[in-house]
Design a protein that fits this description.
GO terms for molecular function: FAD binding. It holds the Pfam family FAD_binding_3. The protein folds into three domains: 2-66, Alpha-Beta Plaits (2-Layer Sandwich); 83-269 and 469-518, FAD/NAD(P)-binding domain, CATH 3.50.50; 272-462, no CATH class. The protein is 30% helix and 26% strand. It has helices at 15-21, 52-60, 91-102, 116-129, 160-171, 188-204, 255-263, 283-291, 370-387, 399-404, 425-428, 431-447, 498-518; strands at 2-10, 28-35, 41-49, 64-66, 83-87, 106-111, 208-211, 213-221, 224-232, 238-241, 245-248, 268-270, 273-282, 309-311, 316-323, 326-330, 340-344, 352-361, 394-398, 416-417, 420-422, 457-462, 469-471, 485-487. The strands form six sheets. The chain has a seven-stranded mixed beta sheet. Strands 7-6-5-11-24 form a five-stranded parallel beta sheet, covered by helices on one side. Strands 2-3-1-4 form a four-stranded antiparallel beta sheet.
Length: 522
């Protein structure tokens, strides 16, 4: 009988030794976490096969519980041969393409950016020589913005689709530990190997990829998309094509595509998002806060994470997308703008921690106009570019100087790519954003003084936390404006992060498969 047992393992012990005390030799780890409330300990949940009598004894004692495996995700095959266009190769696009192709449908994937192998060269060229390719950068290209991130897979969603996502990533080369870690992450270095393997997996299923191809036009007839125009960005040629269904898996930086959709009569709305800065600490500072003075240097403990919130009078402030052992990177996708983001390798061994510190913004701040919200983002990014010296250096200021309204003579010495420059970030942000951030740091200083050391440095500007736009859709994942158009993922306004975007793509694809299997003629 298979049972699930929780085992607490002190730092000075090993899991195998604790299991031997219970007479368990064969097992599988299904969850691993750290309890750092007092002395840090590892908490494992393992599955083992025991004799029924022994298993029931442990269950009655409350030591174990019956193991219930995660059910498999069933993908139905549909008899109808339909032609599907997937726009974007982020998590939503890749996983929708996977589901649709497994069901036997013809899938074409277009991506304005380049394959990972070429994209890496373009990003490195930008960081080293400051030459930005507006279609191949940290935001655009195979794998989406997540390719140059920490590769976090945390989500509140718990179901078979999440397991399917993680299992697929492992099959494509992600570390197997993501299947059981409480806070799994892949790391940008590993993701750059996983994504090409994912591409090859889809190709074997018959998926056609077209990189450096941009969706430039949607034509509607009544309540359907009748055709689309796709531009080859290498040759400059545009071609009108016909598809039965279109999956829009845009990133939150696809501002030109949002504008095109509005012009085509696709209904959009503004949605809440957040804007702010990134803060860099030495990683050992965060380790000491989370693990305590006695244990923070212990070799078994991974680089620590944190999450802080502050409820202000008018607006809330929160940390977001925290990257232990990572870098703040310049993540611009438009010329003469500076955008920052966080990125970590799998080992998280840079010696520095960073996190976004952002303030909530709402549709009413922009008269419920998503394009006014986009213009607000763009204006901040342009101002940050100038403030950093107009060469894609990111403007930076020590936290205490930001609070006190003064220039910084020194900045933190590492944890950023490519460059930071001392600047008055307190003057860059509007009052309704800078004031709550100052209040938040003072509040956190009162709670945990170590969190605001003298060398903690803010970097600007963090504007791409999520999409300010929502492409309105029905409960069956179809656009309210076109019944064969499926807006999915983060750019469409329905997800945030790799896992939730992937699951949204899966749900959209399954919704179409259900529709095709129910109708005799579609």
């Amino acid at each position: 009988m298979k049972v699930e047992i929780e085992i607490k393992v002190p730092l000075e012990s090993e899991l195998e030794g604790e299991l031997r005390k219970l007479g368990i030799e064969s097992y599988e780890i299904v969850r691993k976490s750290i309890d750092a409330r007092k002395k840090p300990i590892f908490v494992y949940r393992i599955v083992t096969d025991l004799e029924e009598k022994r298993a029931k004894e442990l269950i009655e004692k409350g030591v174990a519980r019956e193991y219930k495996p995660v059910p498999e995700l069933v993908i139905p095959e549909v008899p109808k041969k339909k032609r599907i266009l997937v726009v974007g190769t982020g998590p939503a696009g890749l996983f929708s393409a996977l589901i649709l192709s497994k069901a036997g449908l013809e899938v074409v994937v277009v991506e304005r950016g380049k394959p990972v192998e070429e994209r890496i060269l373009d990003v490195n060229r930008f960081w080293k020589r400051r030459k930005l390719d507006e279609n191949s950068n940290v935001q655009f290209g195979e794998g989406g913005a997540g390719t140059f991130s920490d590769g976090k897979l945390t989500t509140r969603v718990k179901d078979k689709k999440k397991y399917f996502v993680f299992k697929t990533l492992v099959e494509c080369g992600a570390p197997e530990e993501i299947l059981y870690q409480s806070k799994p992450h892949v790391g940008t270095d590993k993701l750059r190997k996983v994504i090409p393997n994912f591409r090859e997996k889809l190709k074997r299923l018959g998926v056609e990829f077209r990189f450096s191809h941009l969706l430039t036009r949607i034509y509607k007839e009544e309540r359907r998309v009748s055709s689309v125009k796709i531009k080859d960005l290498i040759t400059g040629k545009e071609k009108e094509e016909f598809f039965d269904y279109i999956f829009l898996a845009l990133g939150n930086s696809a501002r030109d595509t949002f504008k095109m959709l509005k012009g085509a009569g696709i209904e959009l709305s503004a949605k809440p998002f957040a804007v702010g800065l990134r803060v860099i600490h030495r990683q050992r500072t965060i380790n000491r806060i989370q693990y305590g003075r006695r244990w923070f240097k212990h070799p078994k403990l991974p680089p620590a994470e944190y999450s802080f919130t502050y409820k202000g009078k008018d607006r809330n402030v929160y940390t977001f997308c925290m990257c232990p052992g990572g870098y703040v990177i310049c993540a611009s996708s438009e010329k003469h703008t500076v955008v920052c983001n966080g990125m970590s390798n799998h080992k998280r061994d840079s010696g520095y921690a960073n996190s976004a510190v952002v303030v909530q913004l709402f549709p009413e701040d922009f008269e419920n106009d998503p394009f006014k919200a986009i213009e607000f983002q763009r204006n901040l990014e342009r101002a940050a570019f100038v403030l950093g010296g107009s060469n894609y250096a990111m403007p930076a200021q020590r936290v205490w100087d930001f609070i006190n309204g003064q220039s910084s003579t020194e900045l933190i010495e590492g944890g950023f790519i490519p460059e930071i420059k001392s600047a008055r970030l307190d003057r860059l942000l509007p009052e309704e954003i800078s004031r709550p951030i100052k209040e938040a740091f003072l509040h956190w200083y009162e709670k945990v003084s170590f969190f605001v050391p003298t060398n903690a440095t803010l970097v600007g500007v963090e504007t791409r936390t999520s999409s300010p736009v929502r492409i309105l859709r029905n409960g069956n994942y179809t656009s309210v404006s076109a019944e064969n158009l499926y807006p999915i993922g983060e750019g469409a306004g329905y997800a945030g992060g790799i896992t939730s975007s992937a699951i949204d793509g899966i749900n959209g694809a399954l919704s179409l498969l259900e529709k095709l299997s129910l109708k005799t003629e579609v």
